[in-house]
Amino acid sequence: MVGTDEITETPSFEVEDGAYAVVLDEAIVPYSGSSVTVSAKNSKGTELFIGTANGVDADSYLDGVAQEQISDVTFPKETAHRFLPGQSKPEAAIGDRDWWISRDTGKSVSKTFDLDAQPQVLVIAPANSDDSLEGTTVDLNMRVNGVLGLSLLGIALGVILAGFSVFFFMRWWGSRIRPPKKDVDPRPDDGSDGGSQSRNRSTPAESAGRPTRADDQSGPETQPISTVQPGEAPPRRRDLRRRRSLRAVTAASLGTGLLLSGCASMPIAKPSTPDITPYERIALRPGEAGEFMTDYTESLDKTLGDDGDGLDKIQAAPLIDRTRAQIQIADKADQKLRAPNFTEVVAGSPSFTDYPMWFYAFGTADEKSTDGDEQLTQVMLVTRESASAEPLVRSSSYIPTDQMPTLMADDAGAVEPGPDDFDEELDTSADDVASFLVDGKAKDSKGKSGAPDGLKEGGFKGFRDYLDGLRDKDSGFDKVDVDCRPYDDLDFEDMTLSTDNGAIGMGEVRCTLTIKVPTDYALDLGDTVEAVKTNDKDGDTVKVDTAHPYVLMKTGDSLTAVATDWDVLSSRVE
Prior knowledge:
Elements: E1 6-9, E2 13-14, E3 21-25, E4 31-32, E5 35-42, E6 48-53, H1 55-61, E7 67-74, E8 78-84, E9 102-106, E10 108-114, E11 121-126, E12 136-144, H2 147-174, H3 204-207, H4 237-264, E13 270-271, E14 281-282, H5 289-305, H6 319-332, E15 342-348, E16 351-352, E17 357-365, E18 376-384, E19 392-400, H7 420-439, H8 458-471, E20 479-486, E21 497-499, E22 502-516, H9 526-531, E23 541-555, E24 558-562, E25 567-573
Parallel strand pairs: 3-7
Antiparallel strand pairs: 1-12, 2-12, 3-11, 4-13, 5-10, 5-12, 6-9, 6-11, 7-8, 14-16, 15-17, 17-18, 18-19, 20-22, 21-22, 22-23, 23-24, 23-25
Helix pairs in contact: 2-4, 7-8
């Protein structure tokens, strides 16, 4: 093996006081064909953290935080860096983030990255957010493979090829057209006949009485180089010079080209000008769907066992309202809630270049996790506001597993958003669902209204049956009214996905029941309504708030709304 590996490095620099992190975008290192090692050491014994991440996550996490950015690298001269003032630390602990691609901790940390790989952002920070980077020095080393042997080989090839170039040049110089000899007159005799010029040209030798080659029968008849056939223009001196000059230039260019190509082909580190493009990151990378669902299920189980403590760290409205009500109802009925288990997980999201992000997660529940014999798939809409925030499940509902659509993802794992016309149908369908929950009349889906199928089934039908029971004459209530409106605190229409033959989205409707009780009746609405009652006021009117989540799916020209259940949220006496 020829040559050995060598290291070239830039001078170390000390991190400025007040900086929480040192940030290096690998794309700014203007070299290729090698690897760079970034090392950091703290003289005060502070535990350091080093990690690599996608630029979207790192930029969001450190937005507004005091940091030292490495802005340029020139081996072996210097590492240019600048201080950006800001907050003393991020909102969340650095080691708890789930988007780190690689991470490590220690009093002395380092990371080696390939200059030809997909660029990432490297972050150096204190492992404990209460510490600082005071006394931390950073240096960059670049490995150059076999540079000594390859350099000697390159020099040798260069000398050889340069010699060839000089040889061709000298040959050209020596082969230039020279003046004719003094004893030979190449010009034709002006007095000779042009028709016999090629055969009867006289020379000084003939005039002296010596025989010519034309009189010598021992060899073939020849003619001087200056002889031309009748009608041909005599060759010009500059034409010959130009042709020979062209050959010389070609030879020199070939030699130089070979020399340069020999140097360029050597596998050593060399400057490059990388195209820095915006980072793209899907909300859930391939392979992380199962991990997310497992973590969410474990966290939800723990929260349900702690009477909802910490629920706001994994859920947000509108789902969190339903879960809190279910915890109260289960406690009233002395029941135990548990999160479902999943046998198969799929996730889909468009590709984003910045936060906030969102994605759909689909988990096929095992048979013990849901009531009934039908296999169900849970559909969850998840959002993430920033890299410092946790993913929050915003909506959740079930669909029959055999109705689960196929998501069409590209090479990066991203799924196209739903088409604009489906977004509009999702918006109008919310009004159709609310209208059906009020009067129980489902409009023909083939009519102008475009109302979805499925309104007379599942959770929609269950609520209508409950409402009809309250209105039954044997119930004893004087009057039961209902008012339903689409939930508009979350823009469901902006979060839809395309499928293999249509699109999928989610929605929710909120209803308020107003129940009038006769004055001579005792009020008894059951444990469910009593469990979520928000006041102890005496009165003859009860108001009950309900939630109706659903999944809207389009297959071809068919539009279907699916709801497996509905929830009581709260009640109050007026």
